[in-house]
Amino acid sequence: MADVIEADGLAILPGRITPAEQRALAEDIRKIIKKAPLFQPVMPRTGKPFSVEMTNCGPLGWVSDRAGYRYQPNHPVTGRPWPAIPERLVKLWQDLGAPAEPEACLVNIYAEGARLGMHQDRDEATFDAPVVSVSLGDTAVFRLGGTERRGPTRSVRLASGDVVVFGGPSRLIYHGIDRVLSGSSRLIDGGGRINLTLRRVNPF
Ligand code: MD3
Ligand code: FE
Fold first, then answer.
1. Ligand with minimal distance to 144 CA
2. What is the tally of structural domains in the chain?
3. In this structure, what CATH number is given to the domain that contains residue 36?
4. How close is the Cα of 143 to the center of ligand 1, in Å?
């Protein structure tokens, strides 16, 4: 399918990653999880656990605990530095025209029933770079709003290999994952969905 470029800095690129590249990426992620085990973040203050499990790669990783949301250079459980971002993801970032190098790659793992409530991503010290999202495995029902919490939303399905670029005014839109369609992909043994988000945290 042709690239679908939408307005306001939003680009949805269905099937941007080939099936062979998707398998290679899934293997990269498996190795990252061996070095940087999945952890279950909890909500600031309340301590309510997310239904999504996470890890990171890159110089900085996003974490959430009772103290708040932040980026940090070390894994919250092992204390070790995050593994490097796979070269094929750095190349994707550059091929999409994003500036400098990504500093953080958040790995979100969705088992059956996992979801992510509507939120903005604004823990970064710069919004000048886009966020690049890569979906692998089961299809997600993604909800896309505007830059105000209230207001119209629409639903978009993100399948394995789809890439979305959120730049310009779209960098600060509200978004979330309503649900994951289990059994929709055979990429990941045991099913589920992986979402990778590549970000700049600091100005370049
Ligand atoms: C729009 N992840 O990690 S990817 C997140 O599928 C997150 O795991 C979802 O929202 C997931 O913060 C959605 C799409 C996405 C990611 C980051 C964005 C959309 C975005 C940042 C700014 C605007
Ligand atoms: Fe987000």
1. 1
2. 1
3. 2.60.120.590
4. 10
